[in-house]
Amino acid sequence: MTRHIKLFPVVLLGLNASIAAATFDWQATLDAYGRSQNPPLNAIVTTPVSDGPRLNLGTVQLTISDPGWSVDVVAQAGDYVDRNSAAEPSWAKPIHTARLTAWLTPSVSVEAGVLPSHIGLESARNASNWTMSRSWVAEFSPFFETGVALGVTDPNWGNAKILVIDGWQQINNTNGELAWGTQLTLTPHPATTLGLNTYFGNEGAIGASRIDRRFLDLTWVQSLSDTWKMSAAWDWGNQSGGTAPNWYGGSVISRWAISSNQAIAGRLEWFQDPHGAVVPNGATMVSSSVNWDIQATPEVLTRLEARWDNVDGIQTFTSLVGVSWGIGGRIK
User: Closest by alpha carbon to 194, among 140, 127, 130, 121?
Assistant: First the structure.
């Protein structure tokens, strides 16, 4: 007992020294939008849900980092939260990210908490995506997850992760069971990145029959030149129970930087979920879009998009305008 009492101040001093040596960075972002009409299925959550300017996503982030560990805490608000966190309790809705990362070795890390999804190429923050509205394969796969991830990184080939998580885009576990996921990112060439991501979990409610979900996500990003890039994503999902066995879809995006502060992008995509596994009431969708980005200042990105959608034979044309704003700095 005496040994433990003597050891505690040493551990506490070491922790205080580590925090004192850490860096503190902050960032604030806003994604605001307007559109010409309701998007199909009212499911493009990067698009406002009513006329006039809307806040899609606002975030405030604090990152504390040390050579051996880091903490990321991101609070959020906006239409994105209303859509993607609708099933979460009120205390969880403001949480975008709450992540602790510890490096066990220079190449092995452990992450725990509310994490960005390991699936797909597109994120909730609009400015990091190549197009203003996200693709259907992004909209109908998770944007966040809660659990633990063990990762290995190698500069010669890429990185890999295995995850144990609460479920399909959940903070609050709804059925008491855990799900599994894997992520494999390969860089066979400096201009080529390949991804293979999986998910396995039970989507059934407590006391109900099991609904075992299996999901595969394949991605490709290619730099064709200093100004021209292409990406592709293909998703396949399957689950047992009910009448929703399979869904699948894909997207191809090309982006060309026409100057130091302007870029254009085009997208073609297709998504099929006839039995409503992830699309409300089920649908088959074919879509295309053209995007024009203007980076007026380092802090402000203006985006214009023209979008065509065919959902079960019903065609819609939507014009979108958005402004993404971000600032940040270092406290110490």
Answer: 121
